[in-house]
Amino acid sequence: MFRPIPALGVAFALLIAGCSSDDGASTSDAATASSAPSTTMTVPVDEPTTTAPPTTTTAPEQPEVVTIDVVAPDLGLDETVEGDAELVGDPFDDPFATCSAYRTVAGAYAVGVGDPDGALTWVSVVSAARIDGAGAVPADVRIELPDGREIDASGALVLDNDLAGGTFVATATDGATIEGSFECSGGARPPVTMAATDADAIEVVALVERDGHERVFTAALLGADAADCPVDEDGLVVRVDGDASTGAISVFELSGPSSAATLSMTIGATTYSFDDATLVLDDAARAGTFLADGDATVAGAFSCT
């Protein structure tokens, strides 16, 4: 059965993007030697010499790899899972990895690794609130095992300063303690975080359930045009197109009417489409929730400012 999770109750706020700068290359001038003429004799000199400009070596880009360590003695777990975040596959059927460190923008923080043939078929840590930099934030942990067991726990996530790693501690529903750490290597730079005073942004959080397995995905967009979020009950409600970040929702479109809305959402190599989604709007807040059921069940929330 589908069940809501705390992350879907996050109160969304907005943000404005940061900027970047380019570095210029420099070279040294060539040095030459010369001789002055003499009235009595000519002194031979060496041919002019040159100094080659320094070469610039560009380090190869590091692969984007997500590593999560999980320890839960009461559950007999002490595992390390690793996933290539650059693989674009199905989030349920293929090896899959996601991390907010690779995003341009981060609202709620999410990190996860899945492998149908792994010792743990899925591990995820998702903040139950929007992050605003490093430090502690409430979080939910989800673990799925090959034998079909599913472990849900609530606790806290502590993010490192670079937002590319951290630690977590959570308590499962049976009282077992789950703790661990994670690292998202290879990211070019930390994501921009959202703050409550930001404007012109769209944020989406979606919980996808299929065959008893759950995945949480997010999308965040800055500098959004008002036309992408009119919250029109009889037309386009919200659209996000272009967030191609690894493991994120790359395309999301929700259109009315509320009683039979259409929903299309692309994650990795899979597009989920529904013609009869249920939509509940808060026009004043330009926000809403959605629920759709088919080959998979999708429940989530969005907010625009």
Describe the structure.
There is one protein chain. By secondary structure, the chain is mainly β. It has 2 domains: 63-194, no CATH class; 198-305. 0% of the residues lie in helices and 48% in strands. It has no helices and 19 strands. The chain has strands at residues 65-72, 77-84, 96-99, 105-106, 108-114, 122-130, 135-144, 150-159, 165-172, 177-185, 192-193, 201-210, 213-222, 236-241, 249-255, 261-267, 270-282, 287-293, 297-304. The chain has a 9-stranded antiparallel β-sheet, with no helix packed on it. Strands 13-12-19-18-17-16-15-14 form an 8-stranded antiparallel β-sheet, with no helix packed on it. A two-stranded parallel ribbon has the order 4-11. A hairpin with a 5-residue loop joins strand 7 and strand 8. The radius of gyration is 26 Å and the shape is globular. The two termini are 33 Å apart. Mean pLDDT is 80; it is low at 1-43.
Q: Short description, anyone?
A:
The protein is mainly β. The chain is 0% helix and 48% strand.
Work out the helix count: 0
Strand content: over 45%
Low-confidence stretches: 1-43
> Can you summarize the main beta sheet?
9 strands, antiparallel
- Rounded radius of gyration (Å): 26 Å
Cα-to-Cα separation, first versus last residue: 33 Å
Strand tally? 19
Q: Strand order of the main beta sheet, please?
A: 2-1-10-9-8-7-6-5-3
Based on CA inertia axes, which overall geometry fits? globular
Along the chain, the helix and strand elements come as: EEEEEEEEEEEEEEEEEEE
Number of structural domains: 2
Mean pLDDT reading: 80
What is the percent of helical residues? under 10%
From the helix content, strand content and strand pairing, which structural class follows? mainly beta
